[in-house]
Design goal:
Layout (H helix, E strand, L loop, with lengths): L1 E5 L5 H12 L2 E7 L3 H11 L2 E4 L5 H7 L8 E4 L14 H29 L2 E6 L2 H5 L5 H21 L4 E8 L12 H9 L9 H13 L7 E4 L6
């Protein structure tokens, strides 16, 4: 059976990705940092396994890799955000955003890539954001960290292609998850007006994209924008 590791698997998008990959025949390792109960619940539902570690801690990633072997698919989904003016974001929060969103993606890829190269087989899918493509006011650090994920995707794809490893990226638009519960009804109405398709994204839309890229044997180094036409 194929094996997949989904970081941030307890979140809204993460759970949808875990379910879809399980449907696709993967044994799924559901990563979590703090949401243990949610991760264990989804893991039980899909007959997978919850694994707790902080993606921003390279030593923790290396330690868990001793127990998780022969990963066929790595989905770097773990991420955090903060809405505020750039000069009002605390140093600690800015550091955390980059450590989780960018370095977490690099850490997991660096650790699990070695075995993929040895087998000359594997797939890495990074979850960025449409703001990583065009930038967002009041989410400058978040946008920068997600732009870094896109640059990382393209560079690593070139480096690992000769080893038979594909690296791609999904750039979600406005997806209705708990992270967006902070928006008022009026805010949501205004946001919806900016989406050409006229609907909000669902976690399942991102899961569909991950499933597609996981099986697309001739696609690497690409950014798949899933945003309803907000960024074209």
């Amino acid at each position: 059976m194929k094996k997949a590791l989904v970081t941030g698997g307890a979140g809204g998008i993460g759970q949808a990705v875990c379910r879809r990959l399980a449907e696709d025949g993967y044994f799924v390792y559901v990563n979590y940092s703090k949401s243990r109960e949610k991760a264990e619940k989804i893991a039980e539902e899909i007959c997978g396994q919850a694994v707790g570690f902080d993606v921003s801690d390279i030593s923790a990633v290396r330690k868990i890799s001793e127990d998780i072997k022969n990963i066929d698919l790595l989905v770097n989904n773990a991420g955090i955000s903060e809405i505020n003016l750039f000069d009002k974001i605390s140093d600690e929060k800015a550091d955390e955003i980059f450590r989780v969103n960018l370095m977490g993606t690099l850490n997991c890829s660096r650790v699990f890539l070695t075995e993929m190269i040895r087998r000359k087989s594997g797939c890495i899918i990074n979850i960025s954001s449409m703001w990583g493509q065009c930038g967002a006011s009041c989410e400058v650090d978040y946008s920068a960290s997600k732009a870094g994920v896109i640059g990382f995707t393209k560079a690593l794809a070139k480096e690992t292609a000769p080893s038979g490893i594909r690296v791609n990226c999904v750039a979600p638009g406005f997806i209705m998850t708990e992270m967006n519960n902070r928006f008022s009804e009026e805010d949501l109405k205004l946001i919806l007006e900016d989406i050409p398709l006229g609907i909000f994204g669902k976690p399942e839309h991102i899961a569909d994209s991950v499933s597609f890229l996981a099986s697309a044997e001739y696609i690497t180094g690409q950014v798949l924008a899933v945003n309803g036409g907000m960024v074209i």
